[in-house]
Amino acid sequence: MTATIISGKEVAEKILTNDLRKKVENLQSKNITPTLVVILVGDLGASASYVRQKEKFASKAGINSEVRKFNDQISEEEILKEIEKINNDKNIHGVIVQLPLPDHISITKVLNSIHPSKDVDGFTPTNVGKLFLGEETLVSCTPKGIMQMLASINLDLKGKNVTVIGRSNIVGKPVSILCQQQHATVTMCHSRTRDIPSKLSDADVIIVAVGKPKFVTGDQVPSGCIVIDVGIHSIDGKLCGDVDFDSVSQKASAITPVPGGVGPMTVCSLIENTIIAAERLSYSE
Ligand code: GUN
Asked: Which residues lie across from 138 on neighbouring strands?
């Protein structure tokens, strides 16, 4: 079997053209331009590159984005003050703090200080709690993008078996909740799981977010499964994911590539969330 490639780049472009630009035009007709602030601390190359992608997509959607850069000596207190300023600024609709942060800064404290209505990463306890309860909220970007990719191939998750590898707060946990809300049966695997391949054998969908290059191989997955690869690694100057694409794509019916898969969808969801935040803040005025 040769797998269909689910191009996140193409799905994101479609959402941009069919949905986001129209919403932005509608807001602009009311003199509102959705505005995103990205807080970037330190000079990690990967973070800077992700932030550039976010700025580029924001500009394509017609929204404002501003990157506020700080050196890695900045104190926690100064970041908290910056976020407070942003929380109180009516012209800013969304804010994210690019992770990771230097060790002397508490990620929990920083994320908890963001006002939930501007938390376009969907990382605050309020928004995570609402997601857990199935209430309307700003859904974190990578899980949201994964669900949009599954929708793009018209997959009905009802009664399907989904195996998620990785239990992070950013991807594994929230995507498992979203799949359950669509009536899938979800199996969670993580670093202490015994015999991961046995948990893949009856999976209809496999979502891999473990942060280990080529962790899942073709011999471990059932024929016809759908594979979502969240990882990105640079090995000998070449990018690869958490999935061994060459062997898994021989067995899967559909698979996301790296690069060009989940990454562009995460960025698209961030911009979509900023637009949603702007819409909601404009209704509440
Ligand atoms: N670092 C890696 N992924 C993410 C993300 O989705 N949001 C933020 N803020 N930082 C990240």
From this structure: none
pLDDT at 285: 61
Known catalytic membership, residue 28: no
Residue ranges in the chain modelled with pLDDT below 50 = none
The pLDDT tens digits for 212-256 are 999 999 999 999 999 999 999 999 999 999 999 999 999 999 999
Residue-wise pLDDT for 139-159, tens only, equals 999 999 999 999 999 999 999
Region(s) of the chain under CATH 3.40.50.720 = 141-262
- The pLDDT score that the predictor gives to residue 282 is 80
Distance in Å, CA 99 to ligand 1 centroid: 5
CATH value of 141-262 in 3.30.565.10, 3.90.1150.10, 2.60.40.1220, 3.40.50.720 = 3.40.50.720
| Cα-to-centroid distance, 142 and ligand 1 (Å) | 9
CA of 29 to the centre of ligand 1 (A): 31
CATH class of the domain defined by 31-115: alpha beta
Q: Give start-end residues of each CATH 3.40.50.10860 domain in the chain.
A: 31-115
121 flagged as catalytic = yes
**Of these residues, 23, 118, 119, 121, which one is catalytic?**
121
